[in-house]
Amino acid sequence: MTITWRRLDEPDFPLLRRWLEQPHVARWWNHETSAEAVLRDFGPAVRGEEPSEDFLALLDGLPIGLVQRCRLADYPEYLDDLSPVVDVPSGAMSIDYLIGDQAWTGRGLGPRIIASMVARTWSDYPDATCVLVPVVTANRTSWRALEKAGLRRVGEGDITPDNPIDDPLHYVYRVDRPQPEPVL
């Protein structure tokens, strides 16, 4: 089974709304799911008015998840939250992710999706130095997926949580751009 990527587009918003309404997604994404809210929050990136990128993860062509990707430097408030917890080098990127349908969870797809997007980040952004991902400590499934995808825990500390019911304590995971093999 092959994972490929396609940029999110407005015709995908009804699917995204359904995913955001799923209990396993809603618990961690804490997002309004009205058509207006999805258009408001995802429309600017789709239209290129915001520097973040939203991708559908496709498994053999079937949409199964979403990954958001951004340069941390493009979001100063996010950078201000993260910088007291870990060193944020120039060129650092971040991702957020979800698997939309509960039936696709627990199959090892999360780590594959994460690793695939990290690999794509290296090719899409030659100046990207690392990918940093903060995760609420209570979201064990998410941080275990990051570990299985090859990211390592590099810090922990208080960061404003996406869901106000969560404790601010986060783990921060990192993967650095692979260095080229020396030519002998």
From TrEMBL:
| Primary role | Acyltransferase required for the direct transfer of medium- to long-chain fatty acyl moieties from a carrier protein (MbtL) on to the epsilon-amino group of lysine residue in the mycobactin core.
The record's section on InterPro entries has: Acyl_CoA_acyltransferase (IPR016181), Acyltransferase_MbtK/IucB-like (IPR019432)
Q: Which Gene3D superfamilies does this UniProt record tie to the protein?
A: 3.40.630.30
| Protein's name according to its UniProt entry | Lysine N-acyltransferase MbtK
At the top level of its lineage, which domain of life is listed?
Bacteria
What pathway does the annotation place this protein in? Siderophore biosynthesis; mycobactin biosynthesis
The residue ranges of the Acyltransferase MbtK/IucB-like conserved domain are: 6-47
Which GO-annotated molecular functions does the record name? Answer: N-acyltransferase activity
- Any single GO BP term: siderophore biosynthetic process
- What is the scientific name of the source organism? Planotetraspora thailandica
